[in-house]
């Protein structure tokens, strides 16, 4: 298949690995920010193929994993509203909140449904006009334009029973916070291809400029990721950090203007609460006042329980790259994909789920 097979050719992968080995002169630690990269690295066994000097750590790029417990609790509480139908993505269903999960509430009789896109939730609102359909929206810049378009479509169709709880977040402020915390020493970032297809390369320029770290916007096939690592090693060797685009077939430096415009029309930057990173200014996306009637958070104030984490779960440290999943004492014992204790094991893009995949 075009754009896939050509980035999976064994001889190309072998050549890239040989070149990485040839030019690597010292231990280097790169963070892959995106959960899809984390899964691709696990799926293709890339960590085992790389020279031992190259360490890959995962960052805060799985949208389900970074959704903090107070926000999970809010989604759960919205299910108690009379006539509510909660619509959300499957991964979010099993994430433990402070007292329960969406799955747990569904077992108790709440109407909570898995959808594959916000447009599915819009269809539910049309199908059930007497209900209040509340879409729980998690994601980054990749999916925010689709939610924005769906809210505009709800307005066009005159749907007064469609709402969104926007828990969307933006990636660059989280990277700035991670770097400002100064807890982890990195030598560069493998940056997300899909997010960057929307925002372009400019929002990352503070990373080489202020922190002296290389960045490569990267595709999702094994040869993409290895090319990105090769570029990062070259940048580190040359002491010339910059933002490079490896994923040229998906990203141009200016990003996608139309997607950014519809995001800006519907959303305003707002403080965003991140698991592991706390409240980060301007890292969330809230509905602008013009669209307030579609805002599930503003329309339905709910009482929240005292937020608490799953006992022993170290997802916050995993998301900051401070520990590997296997360093969590619960990993593989009390926390498995069948019985997850934290979101990083629940999500198909979570670091702990990816580590588990590497073992089977
Ligand atoms: Fe959280 Fe489970 Fe990962 Fe531990 S292994 S950090 S409990 S998800």
Describe this structure in words.
- Helices cover 41% and strands 17% of the residues.
- The protein is an alpha/beta fold and 360 residues long.
- The strands form three sheets. A five-stranded parallel sheet has the order 2-1-7-8-9.
- It is globular and about 65 Å long.
- The two termini are 27 Å apart.
- The mean pLDDT is 95.
Question: In terms of topology, how is this protein built?
Answer:
Blueprint: H1 10-23, E1 28-32, H2 35-43, H3 46-49, E2 54-58, H4 63-66, H5 69-78, E3 84-88, H6 90-93, H7 102-107, E4 112-114, H8 118-127, E5 132-137, H9 144-156, E6 162-166, H10 171-181, E7 188-192, H11 193-199, H12 206-211, E8 214-218, H13 222-238, E9 243-245, H14 257-266, E10 267-274, E11 278-287, H15 296-299, H16 315-319, H17 343-346, H18 351-359
Helix pairs in contact: 1-13, 2-18, 9-14
Features:
18 helices; binds iron/sulfur cluster; globular; 360 residues; single chain; five-stranded parallel sheet; alpha/beta; four-stranded parallel sheet
Alpha plus pi helix count: 18
- Number of distinct beta strands: 11
- Round the Cα radius of gyration to an integer and report it: 21 Å
**Percent of residues in beta strands?**
15-25%
Bound molecules: iron/sulfur cluster
Query: Structural class, from secondary structure content?
Result: alpha/beta
The strand order across the widest sheet is 2-1-7-8-9
Termini separation: 27 Å
Order of helices and strands: HEHHEHHEHHEHEHEHEHHEHEHEEHHHH
* Sheet of most strands: 5 strands, parallel
Helix content estimate: 40-55%
Mean pLDDT, to the nearest integer, reads 95
The dominant shape is globular
Instruction: Please mark out the parts with pLDDT under 50 across 5 or more consecutive residues, or reply none.
Output: none
